[in-house]
Amino acid sequence: MFKIERYQLSNDNLKNWVKFIWHFEADHVDVHHKLLPMDSIDIIINLADDMVYETTADRIIAPKLHVNGLRGRHSFMHQKGNIDLWGISFYAFGLYPFINKSLRNTQNEIIDLNSLSISLADKLKVAVTNETKQCKIKSIMESLDSELGITDIYLKRAEIIDEFMKNDDIPISVFCLNNGISQKMFERFVIKMTGFSPVNLRRIKRYMVASNQLLFNKSAKIPEIVYNHNYTDQAYFTKECRKFSGVSPRTFRQEKNTVIENTIYI
Length: 266
Hints:
Helix content: 40-55%
Strand content: 15-25%
Low-confidence stretches: none
Number of strands: 9
Order of helices and strands: EEEEEEEHEHHHHHHHHHE
């Protein structure tokens, strides 16, 4: 079990886009954990030994300052030696206004932040050179605030995406009709701002919530979880579980190697 310090934002300009800032530090460890699909995107600043991401096909030594894009499948994170990580967790649509570039090619990817925004990368590098944690946090927020570019169009689209995610029982065609936008246009700007299609964003969010119930509510039966999260049947839930976690729901429940199982937020 390891502890991650999570810091809420004191800057109101950032709260609609950034979930929280986090820090994880440990010495002389060998960490190897499964990363599950999440509906957030992270900037990670590594101040210690290399982070390695592993999938079934690749082994990636991450840049010291990188973006961990929205994930639609599981992967593994391995770090050996000393750990000193600072992270910024954004809502699915939250990173876009800080870089103003399409996130279409970031899904399931580890991206050097310099390739998306040299300016933001340079400011964050300086921010974490501060001596105390509180000074680092303040400087990280100031760096983000200075790069934030909100337009009326982006603000409206972010509100629409947020509404779509919260009303996951409404078919996309009906949702678009109710909001007076074409489905193709909606799909295009969601992919541009998040990296994923609207339908896949919903699938990730639904599985994320269902997997938490699988892990932390051991008394809940799998058919109950299927019903609670509006899966059509248990066979479909099993298929989704295999897609997102690599194993069946029963095997997933028995595993003890996911980050969320082995993390205490303080």
